[in-house]
# Entry
Amino acid sequence: MGMCFPCPGESAPPSPDLEEKRAKLAEAAERRQKEAASRGILDVRSVEEKRKKKEKIEKQIATSGPPPEGGLRALLNFA
# Structure
């Protein structure tokens, strides 16, 4: 009663392997992130598609280089 150590005849329970423990912790963290990301969202698939589309557009803008001389102001002046 109230002992902190196992009885001399009993062996301590085996501790999980360090790699196994890390894998379980990483899996739990990933699951929590997914749950938090989808909290309050009714259609997770549409949100994911919108995010991918936005990333694709941002990537196209980044790879297209600098805007032409004058940018949008030049286009607005012709309107």
